[in-house]
Amino acid sequence: MTDPYYKEMKHHKREYDWVSNCVYANYKIPMKCNCGGAITVEADDRGRNYYVCKDFMNDGLHIRHDCLTALEEELDCLRSQYAEEVSLRRELQFELAQMREEIKELKQLIMVDR
């Protein structure tokens, strides 16, 4: 027997995914278009490359995003993720050093009591 709310939850999930896709359509490297179409790389007359929906029409519903801009945005995102990872690692190393000191102190207290 299936959950009576499963169909509704799936519908809301698809709707949320579509809205999220629309909001971030022209940010970073696109994986697929809002219409569900595949993304290809095409060049214009000046030689600039673009990520373009295979069904592109200039109606505002399809993706045409400059490759250089998309790569810069992707790199900025990766840099910020890297910075977060580095700061988290430093915090963990500091906590580990503190725990080692506490363990040493506890061992010394145990040895003194014997």
Return the average pLDDT rounded to an integer.
87
Order of helices and strands: HEEEH
Fraction in helix: 55-70%
Low-confidence stretches: none
Distance from first to last alpha carbon: 64 Å
Keywords: Coiled coil
Protein name: Zinc finger GRF-type domain-containing protein
Coiled coil: 68-109
Please give a structural write-up.
The chain is mainly α. 57% of the residues lie in helices and 11% in strands. The protein has a 3-stranded antiparallel beta sheet. A hairpin with a 5-residue loop joins strand 1 and strand 2. The model has no long low-confidence stretch (mean pLDDT 87).
Task: List the keywords.
114 residues, mainly alpha, three-stranded antiparallel β-sheet, Zinc finger GRF-type domain-containing protein, coiled coil
Put the structure in a nutshell.
The chain is mainly alpha-helical and 114 residues long. The protein contains two helices and three strands.
Secondary structure layout plus pairing:
Layout: H1 6-23, E1 39-43, E2 49-53, E3 64-66, H2 67-113
Antiparallel strand pairs: 1-2, 2-3
